[in-house]
Amino acid sequence: MYRLVALGLGYLLGGIQSAILYGRFKGIEIRNHGSGNAGATNTLRVLGKKAALIVFLCDVLKAVLAVILAKLLFPEMVLLAGLYAGIGAILGHSYPLFFKFKGGKGIAVTVGAIYMIDLPTALIVSLIFIISAWITRIVSISSLLLTSFIPILLFVFYKGNEHIVEIVTLGVVIAGITAYRHKANIKRLMEGTESKLGSKR
């Protein structure tokens, strides 16, 4: 039961689309500009640094809130409840119920969730993202690397846990959602046409 409740809670909170709402406040439908993605990276391209920072922080905070609430509701299963809430938030952000199921790619949400789920994992994947972004200047590569290490690190840190199979499986689900949401980016990476930081594309 806690799995469904945590997942649903995360989905509803994740569906609060800060990029879309901020864009509309500024008189812009963010999904009709730039890459068409309702997230912080496209907000940076379309509306600038201040807007992107606001959107990023809002997306992080909604995931943080989802995981915290799930942990409070199910204190005996904090890790799994947090993971399900985090996945729910990512899905809600990616496929928001009240915005025609067209949202963002969920990286900021993933970051917020993983910081509340397991701090060592969060710090390591954040470092991986920063190093990758600094070297490549390509957000999609860095995002894919960030999430691909989540199941690996969860296994390393929780291999003695009785729920290790489910824990790692949920980590794989997070990485899988990211890969699926970035399928167009992966295609462009293979073609050598993917946008870099600073590009307006």
TrEMBL record:
Record localization: Cell membrane
Protein's membrane topology: Multi-pass membrane protein
Signal sequence, renumbered to the chain: none
Membrane-spanning parts: 51-70, 77-95, 107-131, 138-158, 164-180
Catalysis: reaction(s): an acyl phosphate + sn-glycerol 3-phosphate = a 1-acyl-sn-glycero-3-phosphate + phosphate
Keyword Phosphoprotein set for record: no
GO biological process: phospholipid biosynthetic process
Pathway noted in the entry: Lipid metabolism; phospholipid metabolism
Group of enzyme by EC: transferase
This enzyme's EC code(s): 2.3.1.275
A GO CC term attached to the entry: plasma membrane
InterPro entries in the cross-refs: G3P_acylTferase_PlsY
GO-annotated molecular function: acyl-phosphate glycerol-3-phosphate acyltransferase activity
Family: Belongs to the PlsY family.
Subunit text: Probably interacts with PlsX.
Protein role: Catalyzes the transfer of an acyl group from acyl-phosphate (acyl-PO(4)) to glycerol-3-phosphate (G3P) to form lysophosphatidic acid (LPA). This enzyme utilizes acyl-phosphate as fatty acyl donor, but not acyl-CoA or acyl-ACP.
Protein name per UniProt: Glycerol-3-phosphate acyltransferase
Gene (name only): plsY
